[in-house]
Design a protein that fits this description.
The protein is about 35% helix and about 15% strand. By secondary structure, the chain is of the alpha/beta class. The strands form two sheets. It has a seven-stranded parallel sheet with strand order 8-7-6-9-10-11-12, sandwiched between helices. α1 runs parallel beside α13, α2 runs parallel beside α3 and α5 packs across α7.
Amino acid sequence: MTPRTRIAVTRRVPQPALDRLSAAAAVWVSPHDRPLSAPELHEAIAGVDAVMTLLHDRVDDAFLDAAGPQLRCVSNVAVGYDNIDVDACTRRGVQVTNTPGVLTEATADIAMGLILAATRRFGEGERLLRAQEPWAWHMFFMLGTSLQGKTLGVVGLGEIGQATARRARAFGMEIVYSGRRRIAAEVEAELGGARYLALEELLATADVVSLHCPLSEATRHLIDADALARMRPEAYLVNTARGPIVDEAALVDALRDGSIRGAGLDVFEEEPKVHPGLLELDNVVLIPHLGSATIETRTAMAELAARNALAVAAGEALITPVNDVAPAAT
């Protein structure tokens, strides 16, 4: 790495990551605490060696053209990278990295929190009190659903899915899961004998369905009207993965007509916009993409992204590569 190594950071990140970058490179950080427009983003990255991006930054051929042929790394401060055209980056020899692992526990906490909030009607109860509506305890007041003995269906049993399943086991839930392949037998045993099912069978079996799969063309609207119709009327849907995995219009219909009992969402199809039908419903818990939102987790994410960017710029071994690009000689 030379003193002229240039790194652009498209939005403010925790200071320890910026300190790490500034000690080894010339760093530009966006002065705007908002997503940059495409023209702003393209102007900011012109001539840089590496870019630290966030999930709202679209990395495509236009982005790569604007950056120039010297660009060597797009370091995404997220575990998901659906905002990045990885194939385009690979064709141009640009390394893509992400931040897996460091946000696993925080996101699983949010998933379990949404399961509890949806099944025990936390949101409805708080809204009732804040509206200062009259209420009195009685045997049938705001009854929810117990988790003990119920079944959690995990769609995508990766690190976050497994961490969520471990939490659910502590609440007495049984685990079923679906995905591209069956996991190791020892992991199934650790999760109390988790059972691998086809998605259709999982939807028909689970009391709570929790989504942890990446967003791709194969998973876009994976949970559509047909999938929701397969779920049990007493079941709940929780999404802490990516919003477009769920067809929100279909979910609104299912929640309205009682096809499923409730839902908990941390992510949205057209984020930050929320489908207006969801806002009208009491049987869905809505939070604004808080999955990794702890001080410790966001700092760890930014520091990992910074380490990746510096490693690529120096031609060193990568920590969490997404694509297969040989490091350039320095």
